[in-house]
Amino acid sequence: MGLKIVVLAKQVPDTRNVGKDAMKADGTVNRAALPAIFNPEDLNALEQALRLKDKYPGTEVTILTMGPGRAADIIREGLYRGADNGYLLTDRAFAGSDTLATSYAISCAIKKMDECDLIIAGRQAIDGDTAQVGPQVAEKLNLPQVTYAEEVLSAEKKKIVIRRRLERGVETVEMPLPGVITVNASAPDCRPRNAKLLMKFKHAKTITERQSEAEDYIDLTADRPYLNIEEWSVNDIETDTKWLGLSGSPTKVKKIENVVFQAKEAKRLTPADEEIDELMKELIANHTIG
Amino acid sequence: MNNIFVICEIEEGKVADVSLELMTKGRSLANELNCKLEALVLGHNLKGVEKELYPYGADVVHIGDDERLDPYTTLPHTSIIVDLFEKEKPQIALLGASTFGRDLGPRVSSALVSGLTADCTSLEIGDHEDKKAKKQYKDLLYQIRPAFGGNIVATIINPDCRPQMATVREGVMKKEIYDATYKGKVNKIEVDKILKPEDLVVKIIERHMEKSKVNIKNSSIIVAGGYGVGSKENFEKLEELAHVLGGEVGASRAAVDAGYADHNRQIGQTGVTVRPKLYIACGISGQIQHTAGMEESAMIIAINNDPNAPINKIADYVITGDVGVVVPKLIKFYKQNTK
User: Fold this and answer.
1) Residue B225's beta-bridge partner residues?
2) Exposed site from A85, A101, A168, B115, fewest CB < 10 Å?
3) Burial B51-79 (b: 16+ CB within 10 A, else e)
4) Is A252 within 8 Å of B159 when comparing Cβ atoms?
5) Residue B290 in contact with residue B226, Cβ under 8 Å?
6) Phi, psi dihedrals of residue A133, rounded to the nearest 5°
7) pLDDT in tens, A215-246
8) Which range marks the domain in which residue A126 is found?
9) Other beta carbons less than 10 A from residue B174's beta carbon
10) Which candidate in A15, A251, A274 is best for mutational testing of the B interface (most B CBs within 10 A)?
11) Is residue A71 part of a domain?
12) Is B143 found in the same domain as B84?
């Protein structure tokens, strides 16, 4: 039995590799200096989808991402690793969305797609670390959810069995399909790019990308429809615009402070024996240790 | 109506520490806002659970006791909380940023169309002026959290939607008994009337829970290592130092990612928050993601090759040198001076 799987993925700034030029002179974050990457846990999610595809022939894996035009990069990245197709949801109307407005837009896009059996997302994205979009998409679609998944054990007869990794233990749960799961970083890493798929999908592009390039590319998708990355704007999905973007976001950012350490005088020591000896005596004398 | 709710989590038959920490915070917010503090506990065999919560200043303890609520699954908990909140209309709802709270919180907030802020490190009450809409808001919950990998600290508000929901990690707030003789009342939730068959579709087949073995949170001395420790062998020296001092070993995210230490020892924004008597930071540069989880330590000793490492700015003692050299000396001179 083949499954129809939608993988939710996000392109994120690589906040784990914040280099020297990542902060501007005025102390604000220089987003342009941070490389944009496939959110790491979304790659774990993609791997779970691809394993189901290996196990159940006929399974189709679709990547859905919301973001600016350049987020098409992560759809291509997914295609190189084994996904079948992808949708980019992009529109100014989505700007300023908090997790709830994001989840609403994504749920509307999923409703517009062909019926799917399973939605798999990473647990959380490294730019926000909220872990909210997965469960909120599930709620908006009125589907059951299993979070913190580490491995999909089976998906047969419209039921999926999943092992979850919790803070203090492991749980095996069964969920009827369709449903939503979110995958932990402790799940297996995503497989690398496949050379053949890289060749096949190298020119996969959204309509906007094709229009901004040399003319030959425009007709390329006519006989190779798999090279089209579907691009949807707010007009391509059915939404109530009051639930989108800023107006659909209950949470507002009141204030942003750049992190500055408070200076306080530290005693400076060298590793010389006398100094370490003196420090230890001091700590023992004031009952910090001992 | 318009009170503060803490959605409590049950762990090994008792109210979890993180929930009691939030009760403590909730009580002080309730006093500031002059409203009541209410606790919500769902599970099975909860007899007497209110007695654990009254000393933390619970005015009302809502209890839903039903075998279908234990162990926790998302949908039945959500249905009951949504039902209760629609009646009670809390202004604030808090829950732990545990696997429980991070599974349940977003589902509930989505169903109620209220805002939720994850992993807050501070909660305060304050006002807000929306200049565009010319609206004044009084007594909003300021939900303060690091964002963007810890490079910024954001204050989030929910001006128009209620409840204002926030999750907070274990150890971030202090747990403190408010009044040992405090008495509230119990509200028994009629679980049967709320649960529907479709709430019970997810089934737990197997469950292995283990007691958390590592308890760095309650340790008064922590020897923590970062990427700068350099190797797993060097990390063992940290373990030795922790052992002779009677403390525990902690690690930064970079050290965990490098495989030097286990994930359950991770300190910082994505790990645990600690406030020990003594924190010895070895080879830790001091990114905000890490310092957010340890800056309230009573005393900080930073050992680092880099004399300009950011951690030095919050340290009480800075030893500029190699971890592999300094740590064995600490062990040696500690032993000499305590003989």
Assistant:
1) B251, B282
2) A168
3) ebbbbbbbbbbbbbbbeebeebbbbbbbb
4) yes
5) yes
6) -65, -40
7) 666 667 778 889 999 999 999 999 999 999 99
8) 4-243
9) 11
10) A251
11) yes
12) yes
